[in-house]
Amino acid sequence: MKKIMNLLLTAGMVVTLSGCGKPIPVDQAIPGAYRNLAEAKSYAFQAKMKLRVDEDSVNLPEEGFNDMETALSYGSPLFMLLGKEATIEIQGAYDREENRAEAELKLQLDGGDDSSTTIKSVIVATEDNAWIKIPENFAVMMGEPEVGGKYYELGTGYKIPLTPANLSQLGTEGLKIITEDLEGIALKNVKGQRGNLKVDTLSRLEITEDNLEDVLRIAVKNILPKLVELLGTSEWRSKLDLTEEDISSMRSSFEQITNEEISTEANNLKEGMELRKAFVDLGTNKSSRLKYIGAKFDLDVLGDGDTFTLKADINAVLDRYNKKQQLKYGIPTEDEVFRDGEYDEYTEEDLE
Q1: 42-61 pLDDT, tens per residue?
Q2: CA 43, CA 101: separation in Å to the nearest integer?
Q3: Taking the model in full, what pTM does it have?
Q4: Reading across the β-sheet that carries 187-189, which strands appear in turn?
């Protein structure tokens, strides 16, 4: 079922487009919105995300967690990462001519009782690689101060064999399939405005306890088969270097799933959480530019006698389309990159 949830997340991140002064159906709007974003030469972005975990609802050990295994046994490892509340701020830009995107990150961790930690970092990404700068205070916390200020090479492990034009075309066709089946069930235009940001069309992908089973069934029985058939055409098999065996393997991964299994999975999800709010909003202006991405999540995760509340509020703005961007970090040099094994004097026993 992980594939189903990944698919729903993908749908939520790209599902809007503006019309000429009034909203238009999302299954018509999405192709243009995605195409404009995929084909943009450059744009700037900024985002703020707040995550909060209500620890009062969980019976945590008074002595705290001594290791990850103990934390996992409580079903709430988020406490070790977030403490009580985390605020993440991101701002950056993408420039196709420079073949680079850069983003500055600021993570504020609030553990309650006047305890807080601020971590700052930088991410640099190209078409086929990415690096993240290791914050100095984080390196000290992890017992490896020598790596502070260096970049860790994330890498992608592969390079998508698609030109921007082909990627735009594939995304456009795929998203049309997704939205045609979800419109009216979990996907719709809504009225409203987010803060001071004006958008001409605002669309929402919303998952509720009432539509959860329908969304899962539509994804497995309608959307996935259509997406696989799209990839299985000779055009896309050639462009993506896929074989008929690859397509057959994709198809077999979900075609044996029955409606009864989907119902069971939906019931398991409902029993494991109390979902009060879960939606993604996307807004565009009259120029068919994606301007806003927002999301809210509010749910209780139920465990063995324990419950913890997770709340998330995400707001992102995109602007300065096709204008010169201020990229200031550049691709890290060899001397700036930290390699695994470079500092091996620290063992697991040392860190414990």
Answers
A1: 999 999 999 887 755 555 55
A2: 10
A3: 0.76
A4: 187-189, 201-206, 273-284, 290-302, 307-319, 42-54, 85-95, 100-112, 115-125, 130-133, 151-153, 337-338
